[in-house]
Amino acid sequence: MNRDYLIFDIRRTLRNRRVLIFSILMPLVLFLIFGMTLPQDANEAGISAIAYVMVSMAMFGSMSAAMSSGGVIAAERDGGWNRTLRLTPLKPQAYVVNKVILSLLLAVPPLIVVFLCGMAFGHVHLSATQWLTVALVSWLGALPFAAIGLVIGYIAKPDSVQPITGLTTMLIAAFGGLWLPVDQMPSVMKHIAQLTPAYWTGQTSRSALTAGGVDTHALLVVIGWTVVLGMIGLRRYRADTARA
């Protein structure tokens, strides 16, 4: 039942092409506008400016896609679909896990498209190991945003979930250093950036571009964000279930 519902959920979500188009085209356009004019020479950390922007825009796309699951959850709550599912063998925990898996699957296309564009047109040259590592940590970096999508889905109504998700995505990306390098921000914003999950997911993904490998401190913070936000999402789910 769990597997069948997941397949059904994936097929239904793929029909919503607006979500897929936005999460793919938006970061791709931003990368082409801002990234293609940047030099390919590496800085002191060993990261070129175009590679920096490529990873940031890919993360923005995967973040947007992962958070979009909140709209599905809100619509299901409003339509009584959750109450119907409680009459089936599907366990409540399995429902939440399905939504997280769905969010991770939605995060894949933006990463692939932006990375391929960076490779083909941005001439970003990485070893096979680096590409694999960057792709993996960037993909897993969508986990805290999948949890944010859960929270939004359980607190927002269907007619407000889209603007709330869009505004949250923009604010997290802007303050988290995905659109502007944190070292170019004013001092106050640098401190604010470090309070966002986007900053740490960006740090984790971009550190994979360097010879030193993945920043384990940043990775642990991302895991921490995922656990905390996941617990909040699960709590909201249980509260919603109790009300129903």
Description:
With 244 residues, the protein is mainly alpha-helical. It is 76% helix and 0% strand. The chain has helices at 2-14, 17-35, 49-67, 69-79, 81-85, 92-106, 108-120, 128-140, 143-155, 158-175, 187-193, 197-207, 216-243. The chain is globular, with a radius of gyration of 18 Å. The two termini are 22 Å apart. The model has no long low-confidence stretch (mean pLDDT 83).
List the SSEs and their pairings:
Elements: H1 2-14, H2 17-35, H3 49-67, H4 69-79, H5 81-85, H6 92-106, H7 108-120, H8 128-140, H9 143-155, H10 158-175, H11 187-193, H12 197-207, H13 216-243
Helix pairs in contact: 1-6, 2-3, 2-7, 3-6, 3-7, 3-9, 3-10, 3-12, 4-9, 4-10, 6-9, 8-12, 9-13, 12-13
Q: Which spans of ≥5 residues are poorly predicted at pLDDT below 50?
A: none
Number of helices, where a helix is a run of at least 4 consecutive DSSP H or I residues: 13
In this structure, how is the largest beta sheet organized? none
Global morphology? globular
Share in β-strands: under 5%
Structural class: mainly alpha
What string, H for helix and E for strand, traces the elements in order?
HHHHHHHHHHHHH
The N- to C-terminal Cα distance equals 22 Å
Calculate the mean pLDDT score and round it.
83
Helix content: over 70%
List how many beta strands DSSP finds.
Answer: 0
Alpha carbon gyration radius: 18 Å
